[in-house]
Amino acid sequence: MSCPIELDPPQWNSVTEGHLGKLLIPRALQNYISSVFTKLGWHEEKTPFRGTTPIGDIDFTNLIYTFDPSAPRKIILAAHFDSKWFPDSPANQFIGATDSAAPVAMILHLVEFLTPLLNERKNRIEKGLGILKEEENFDEEELSETTIQIVLFDGEEAFKDWTDTDSIYGARHLAELWSSTYLDSSHSVYRSKNKRRLSPEPTILNTIDHLILLDLLGNKHSMIYSYFRETDWLHSKMKQVDDKLKNEKLIEIEPNEDLWFSNFRMSGGIGDDHLPFLHRGVSIFHVISNPFPKVWHTLGDDASVLSLPALRRWNRILRVFTCEYLGLSPTTDMKTKKSEYTRSNEDLVGLRFNFEFIKLPKLMDSKDSRS
Ligand SMILES: [Zn+2]
């Protein structure tokens, strides 16, 4: 069976090849991550800072990549790139394949897929050829006002035991930094056609539509709950994407792994990088396996626990989900030119547009209740 989300980029044939192979080497991955985004032409920002930890002062750096830094708003896809530190051998050989090498690798894989589509749309808009289908409420110019930003947090892990002050060093720093960085009146958010409700003095946090945090993924089993009423709809959209891929037989389902997305909302939440953003009013979708993988924080969390069918399933879910959210479709210039992203109608089944999806964010704009 042929399908676009299977063919391009090439799928992983082993857990030590491609991005994942590079990320399964302890540390020393900042340069690698940076090189991937730089090659793709994304804007890079690093936020270095020194944090006080139970083992002394440590230098951290969050890595932030934005496709279009001039866009008024953004959806953030995030993961942490640090591996938990252990003082003694052999525990200090800890890799963290699911925690969080695989989620970072999935993100890199995703941006390689998205970049040509984003560039094509950008070129169309620049030439005044952005697609407008009024009857479907589809306007590429408007859609492109929401860019995608990747945030890779440093220092997620506690150095000793997880506490409010010994954990999520990078996320706490970034949320604080952004909440105190006010937008000046020339910021494009003021020109945006469909701006969100703004606080009296908007900060960078006001430009975030949603923060989607990936963690503890890539092993055979995942169970993803919704934790916040405000983003139940994002959870159910991701579930629908998984269901669609299943129905079209575009993903391999391992035995007993049919259900990855629960229909129930979990009350309470899980401590992770989203918390300092959540507490400042940012809308969160936490994509984390619950319960955690059995190998969590053990040496067993290495390449051997990763499952290729599960990784491929995540890669495809993320591609379709993100394309739908951003209003990107490889179908758009099918008639006008042949590119490597041009495919036949039949091939596009996994990426077919869901216009309902695009309309939903506007209906869900209010920041009221969460649970
Ligand atoms: Zn961890």
From TrEMBL:
User: InterPro entries, per this entry?
Assistant: Peptidase_M28, QC/QCL
The record, for Pfam families, names: Peptidase_M28 (PF04389)
- A GO BP term, please? proteolysis
For this UniProt entry, the molecular function terms from Gene Ontology, in alphabetical order, are: glutaminyl-peptide cyclotransferase activity; peptidase activity; zinc ion binding
The organism sits in which domain of life? Eukaryota
**What is the similarity comment for this entry?**
Belongs to the peptidase M28 family.
This protein's name:
Peptide hydrolase
Please report the organism this UniProt entry assigns to the protein.
Answer: Kwoniella dendrophila CBS 6074
